[in-house]
Amino acid sequence: MRSKYIWMDGDLVPFEQATVHFLNPTMHYGTGVFEGIRCYETRRGSAVFRLKEHLQRFIDSAHIAGILDYPYSAGELYNAVHLTIRANGFAACYIRPMIYMTGPLTLTLDDWTPATGIAVWEWAPFLGKEAAEKGVRMMVSSFTRHHPNVMMTKAKISGNYVNSTLAKTFARRAGFDEAVMLDPQGYVAECTGENLFIVRDGVIYTPPRTTILEGITRASVITLARDLGYTVVEEPIARDQLYIADEIFVTGTAAELVPVGEVDFRRIGNGRRGPVTQAVQELFHETVRGLGARSHEWLDFVDETVIAC
Questions:
Q1: 152 and 74 in one domain?
Q2: 40 and 85 share one domain
Q3: Does the pLDDT at position 104 exceed 70?
Q4: Where does the pLDDT of residue 160 fall: very low under 50, low under 70, confident under 90, or very high at 90 and above?
Q5: One of 4, 134, 154, 156 is an active-site residue; which one?
Q6: What sign does the CA torsion over 140, 26, 124, 175 have?
Q7: CA pair distance 75, 63, nearest whole angstrom
């Protein structure tokens, strides 16, 4: 996760110097806001996937978190992302903008001032390259996804991910790759860092948006699946519906699109990537690499962007 420079409130700072103080309120109270974005190498050069949508969610997350008077516009952050990619010279990379708070160790947002950093680094798919075809093994976690009135589910706030960290850690210790989180009513919500889809009789189902993060990769995959002629239904999914699914796959910026071969020691389908998953996955990969029909509307080409320094 190394690079040459990290963008810190308007300046490109050498990697080793991009630090925050030990008494930073975000580190103590988990009040940071972040985003995950990917830049892909295409035939036309480096291109960021759905950058504007990611940055809008980043600003929306700050608003949901209660941060008033955030100092940067989406346009300023857009330029900062492109500047940081160029400065580091990556053809493809993962992009992590983050808002962290500075000020005294109180529990009041109004006592703090938001600061912003943007890091980029080369990062392989989160669940591993082999998982794209072989699939991953999952367990249903004993940890419940947050009630929407306990933690804001529509924002990527650092504190939300303590829940994910516990679920993921216990799953890995039990020998699984990932965990499925149930919502407070006991229905399937999402995984620790990915949205979830199941396939039954050629129809794709995914949980409704109420208690999940509204993933940008999730929305993209729904659109691409419908472009391929599949019906996609958003409705509650019970735990046992996972076990009898023909296929399961998960989506996320870090993971991209990964099939699930097993849940709670039950094999899903043939235990590997199924035909529906493969079709959607291939179109997704074509799209992010500039070869799909929607590439022109979803990719921002770094080399074509004028940077206002």
A1: no
A2: yes
A3: yes
A4: confident
A5: 156
A6: negative
A7: 17
Number of domains composing the chain = 2
User: What is the residue-wise DSSP string for 254-306?
Assistant: TTEEEEEEEETTEEPTTSS--HHHHHHHHHHHHHHTT-STTHHHHEEEGGGPP
Element (H, E) at 253: none
Q: Are 120 and 90 in contact (CB under 8 A)?
A: yes
Active site (annotated) includes residue 134: no
Alpha-carbon torsion 203, 209, 212, 218, what sign?
Answer: positive
CATH of the domain at 56: 3.30.470.10
How far from the centroid of its chain's Cα atoms is residue 208's Cα?
Answer: 17
Residue pLDDT, tens place only, 260-295: 999 999 999 999 999 999 999 999 999 999 999 999
* Residue 53, in any domain of the structure: yes
Answer yes or no: is pLDDT of 309 > 50.
no
pLDDT tens per residue across span 51-68: 999 999 999 999 999 999
Contacts 24+ apart (CB under 8 A), 16-20: 18/117, 18/119, 20/100, 20/102, 20/115
Q: Closest by alpha carbon to 138, among 197, 226, 80?
A: 197
What CATH number does residue 160 fall under? 3.20.10.10
* Together in a domain, 235 and 258: yes
Measured CA to CA in angstroms, residue 218 lies from 148, 187, 226 at distances of 19, 18, 12
Instruction: Examine residue 107 and state whether it is found in any structural domain, yes or no.
Output: yes
Domain containing residue 86: 5-121
In a domain, 163, yes or no: yes
Host H or E run for residue 239: helix 239-243
For the entire predicted model, the pTM comes to: 0.93
Report d(CA 286, CA 47) in Å as an integer.
13
